[in-house]
Specification:
Layout (H helix, E strand, L loop, with lengths): L2 H11 L4 H24 L9 H32 L3 E2 L3 E4 L6 E5 L2 E2 L5 H29 L1 E4 L13 H10 L10 E2 L4 H10 L6 E4 L2 H16 L7 H10 L3 H18 L3 H13 L14 H17 L6 E2 L1
Antiparallel strand pairs: 1-4, 2-3, 5-7, 6-8
Helix pairs in contact: 2-3, 3-4, 3-7, 4-7, 4-8, 4-11, 7-11, 8-9, 9-10
């Protein structure tokens, strides 16, 4: 493509992002709705009778979750533009069920110039989202209720693991969630804050406030993005560190997801198939194979710490 044509194509892509704006507004509405539903079902607000009351009921969850997602995607966007990689504005994905959104994505066109740039672009999103999620987590738990539970929560080997489901079917105690108490995803940082900051006892658990629930979802999404596979954020960082050997790292990581599904939470089985079938293990090369700078290696180490803290063995469970 000639320089004039490239300039025209770039100008066309940088017109006002009406589609991105429409999807963002739709996601605001869908997360307001699901946030209000969660707030009412969890006893945090009364059943709304007007649109204004519905908005007030949904704002704590919606604003918290969208703040985390926006920080994540804008981290990618800003660093991509700083490295002169053409990146779109975030595309938020609204859905009328679940948490009201499937997250957000940005499109990057062209080749990443260096491994250092790849680390910056891959790590900036999860780190930015994590920085926003942590204070929301602490504030949300402070607003939450801590109540006694009849069954001790199992944060690492859940009732919905494939092993537990098989054993329950064999001994006739199926279904394994018969106690009927929903437990939100359990990122490691969330468990640590509950236990060591707020002193939740062995027969107690947090009845999450909408702000805390949004923060937990944000941490879980961060862990998903940091799985070192293909072109996920963690895959970008892995390729910057290992080059073509990152493919083997991705294969090992996918087997780790399968192990989580077997022993901790069957929901990880979905992500195993998504990773192997749709994300894939490959990663496109960067223009320069120059090694990482010491500063970027420190960023890689920080990214690993964030991944460990957000790792969520039990993605969703029933006590």
């Amino acid at each position: 493509m000639r320089p004039a044509e490239e300039a025209a194509a770039l100008a066309a892509r940088r017109k006002f992002p009406w589609v991105n704006l429409f999807l963002f507004v739709a996601t605001v509405l869908s997360t307001l709705w699901t946030g209000a539903v969660f707030s009412v079902a969890s006893g945090w607000t009364a059943e709304p009778t007007t649109f204004g009351e519905l908005v007030r009921a949904g704002v704590p969850f919606s604003a918290s979750l969208l703040g985390i997602l926006a920080a994540h995607e804008m981290g990618h966007f800003v660093t991509a533009r700083r490295h002169r990689v053409d990146a779109s504005w975030p595309y938020f994905i609204p859905v009328p069920f679940g948490i009201g959104t499937l997250g957000a994505v940005i499109r990057m066109r062209g080749t990443i110039p260096t491994r250092n740039a790849l680390v910056d672009i891959g790590a900036s999103g999860p780190i930015a989202g994590f920085v926003v999620a942590v204070p929301l987590l602490v504030a949300g738990i402070a607003l939450s209720r801590i109540e006694p539970v009849e069954v001790a929560p199992n944060f690492f080997f859940g009732n919905l693991s494939l092993v537990r489901m098989l054993l329950s079917w064999i001994d006739g105690s199926w279904p394994p969630w018969q106690a009927g108490l929903f437990m939100e995803p359990q990122p490691l940082l969330y468990v640590l804050v509950k236990k060591f900051v707020f002193g939740v006892g062995p027969m107690e658990d947090v009845i999450v406030h909408p702000v805390a629930f949004a923060a937990v979802i944000g941490l879980y999404v961060t862990a998903l993005n940091l799985i070192p596979i293909g072109q996920l954020d963690g895959g970008h960082v892995a390729y910057a560190l290992f080059g073509p050997r990152a493919r083997e790292v991705g294969r090992i990581a996918s087997h780790f997801l399968l192990a989580l599904a077997i022993f901790s939470s069957v929901g990880w089985l979905v992500w195993f198939f998504v990773a192997r079938r749709f994300v894939g293990l490959g990663h496109p090369p960067v223009l320069s194979a120059a090694p990482l700078s010491p500063g970027r290696r420190a960023v890689v180490a920080l990214t690993v710490v964030v991944f460990v803290l957000t790792l969520t063995p039990v993605a969703a469970d029933w006590l």
